[in-house]
Every structure is written in structure tokens, then in C-alpha cells.
Amino acid sequence: MTSGGRVPPSLILMSGSILWGLTWIWLKQAHALGIGPILLSVVAYSAQWLVVAPFAWRAWQDPSRPPISRLNGQWLALLAFASGVAGVGFTMAMVYGDVVRSMMLFFLIPAWGVLFGRLLLKEPLTTTRLIAVVCALAGAFLILGPDFGDGLRPADLFALVAGFSLAGANALFRFLTEQPIALKLSLMQGSTVLLGLGIWTLSTEFGVPPTLEAVGSSALYGATMLLAAVLATQYAVERLPAARAAILMTLELLVAVASATWLGDHIHGVHVWTGGALILGAALLEALNARYHRPTISPCKT
């Protein structure tokens, strides 16, 4: 706890990352019940949106809320699109791909986080931060191991695009710091639903009715585990430097690797645990050395 009695954002982000690292279990179980990953995303984010929408409406009606300028609206639209791509892409990668392999590719996100943090938030590229990123990526490639030579599969691409989009969305979430969290979350969730519906109508899932049990499981997932993970992540990334947040979020990868191994998803060797140690070391290095750095540009005032 901090001196003011509040839970540190770093601890909240780590808690959210643990939840993210376990989401694959619920996603695969819901898929096994009879629902495709695209429609699963639509149902889950719809349930999540229904929970957050009343708070977003209250924030929208707040007279003290900063007005949304034209440029500000463009950034919000980009946030919505990036969030939608990340939400649908992550679900598809977890359902169709090997958990460890997909998580590794998803977690090229530390490098993307440093990039977006520099471009949008003017965060410094310190030597310590760059070393942490190199360690995280080296650990991720070790976890992937010899499978990397097999080439990229569809699930690999889903994971790569989702990670890149999530890093951008996290940076934009902080960049739009003057807008209420509930309003931004509602926009992100709604865009995921709309984008997912569009993709679903063009996919092989369209026309295949899901089971009622699968729909219920997907909705419960969205309103509980997914919502908690999203709230924890976005609350923290708005209060932490984007690069630091990206490194701390690699805990998600460690949890996913450990849980997948424990549940017998795949037998992993020493290279996996060596990679995990490198990623954990990178997270600790960034957490100990990164300092809070506010963005120098506020789109709400442009």
C-alpha cells in the first residue's frame, strides 16, 4: 500500500495480468461448448459493455467533463478501432492457437509499448528500459523455441496483430487521459462488438448457431473475468508510463505458460523456463527503474 492507503497501480496491473494469463482456459472451454471465437468475442464484450454503459452515460453527462474536439474525436476513434482489433484477435489466437506460442507472439507487446510510449507520450528511451525490452523479447523467443522455424500460422498472425493493437490502445488510453475511464472503456467495448459482428458476418462462423450453454458461458466470462482484467489493466496503464506497463504486463505470459504446462496443454523444456526467467527479470528491472512520466501533449486541449 502507498502512504495514502491506495493500492499501487503496478500491483493492480500485475493482478490484471494474472487474470489475462488465465483467460485462455475459459475461452477454450466456451469454444468447446459450441461457439466460434469471433461470436464469443461479440457476446463477451456485449455483456461487459452492459455493465459499464451506465457509468459511461453518467460520465458523459458530467458537466465538468472536457469537451471532445475534432482532433480528440479522431484519437478516440483510433482507440476504439485498435481495441476492437485487439479484443477479437486475442480471442481467436487463444482459441485456435497453442497457448504458449500465441502468448509469446502476443507479448512482443513490450517492444510496441516502448514505441508507442515514445511517439505518443514522449517517454524517454533509457538504457535500462531498452535492456528490459531486449530481455523480454529474448525470453519470449526462448519460450517459443524450435517452433519458430515452422513459420507463422493464422493464430500466430492473430496474436501478433492483437499485441500490436493492444499496445497502441494502451498508449492512446493514457494519451486521452482527460476523458473519463468509463467513457473510454465503453467506447472500446462497443467497438469490439461492432467490429466483431462485421467480421463474423464474413467468416465461416456465420450461419452456425451457437449452443445456449456456450452463449451463457461467454456472457458470464465477459461480465466477470474479462471485465475485471480490463478494468485493472486500463486503470493502471493510465497511471503508469506505457513502457513500464508493457513490461509489467508480461506477467500474463508467465501465468499462461505456467497454467498451460500445469494443465497438460503441452510439455515444455528448460528453454521455456529460462525464457520465463528472462521475462520476469525484465519486468522487475522495469518496475524498479522506470519513473512516472506524464504526457507532454493533451489532445483534449488541442
Describe the structure concisely:
The protein has helices at residues 9-34, 37-61, 70-96, 99-106, 109-121, 127-144, 154-175, 181-202, 212-237, 242-248, 251-262, 270-289. With 302 residues, it is mainly alpha-helical.
List keywords for this structure.
302 residues; mainly alpha; 75% helix; 0% strand; disordered C terminus
Major sheet size, sense and barrel closure: none
Oligomeric description of these chains: single chain
Structural class: mainly alpha
- How many beta strands in the DSSP annotation? 0
3D structure, described in words:
The protein has 302 residues and is an all-alpha fold. The chain has one domain. 75% of the residues lie in helices and 0% in strands. The protein has 12 helices and no strands. The chain has helices at 9-34, 37-61, 70-96, 99-106, 109-121, 127-144, 154-175, 181-202, 212-237, 242-248, 251-262, 270-289. Helix 3 packs antiparallel against helix 4, helix 6 (127-144) runs antiparallel to helix 12 and helix 10 runs antiparallel to helix 12.
Secondary structure layout plus pairing:
Layout: H1 9-34, H2 37-61, H3 70-96, H4 99-106, H5 109-121, H6 127-144, H7 154-175, H8 181-202, H9 212-237, H10 242-248, H11 251-262, H12 270-289
Helix pairs in contact: 1-9, 1-11, 2-3, 2-8, 2-9, 3-4, 3-7, 3-8, 4-6, 4-7, 4-11, 5-7, 5-10, 6-12, 10-12, 11-12
